């Protein structure tokens, strides 16, 4: 399952990220925020617009907003 499909509140672990699908600068920012393979994440909220963008993702003690396209590049497994 990808991060964009993870139910709100469900804890998960990132198992793979399709880095080539992301713009290099955006990938660098996501890594700086701790979005790496093995990181524990959960979806806190989804946007209210038609595409449900952005997605608020909790990682560690932070909550960060990521685009749905970025979340779709992250393969997760539910915990």
From TrEMBL:
<dbReference type="InterPro" id="IPR052713">
    <property type="entry name" value="FeoA"/>
</dbReference>
<dbReference type="InterPro" id="IPR008988">
    <property type="entry name" value="Transcriptional_repressor_C"/>
</dbReference>
<dbReference type="InterPro" id="IPR038157">
    <property type="entry name" value="FeoA_core_dom"/>
</dbReference>
<feature type="domain" description="Ferrous iron transporter FeoA-like">
    <location>
        <begin position="1"/>
        <end position="78"/>
    </location>
</feature>
<keyword id="KW-0408">Iron</keyword>
<dbReference type="InterPro" id="IPR007167">
    <property type="entry name" value="Fe-transptr_FeoA-like"/>
</dbReference>
<protein>
    <submittedName>
        <fullName>Ferrous iron transport protein A</fullName>
    </submittedName>
</protein>
<dbReference type="Pfam" id="PF04023">
    <property type="entry name" value="FeoA"/>
</dbReference>
């Amino acid at each position: 399952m990808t991060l964009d499909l993870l139910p709100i509140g469900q804890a998960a672990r990132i198992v793979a990220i399709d880095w080539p699908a992301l713009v290099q600068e955006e990938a660098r920012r996501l890594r700086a925020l701790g979005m790496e393979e093995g990181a524990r994440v959960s979806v806190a909220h989804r946007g209210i617009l038609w595409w449900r963008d952005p997605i608020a993702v909790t990682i560690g003690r932070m909550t960060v907003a990521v685009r749905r396209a970025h979340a779709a590049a992250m393969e997760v497994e539910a915990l």
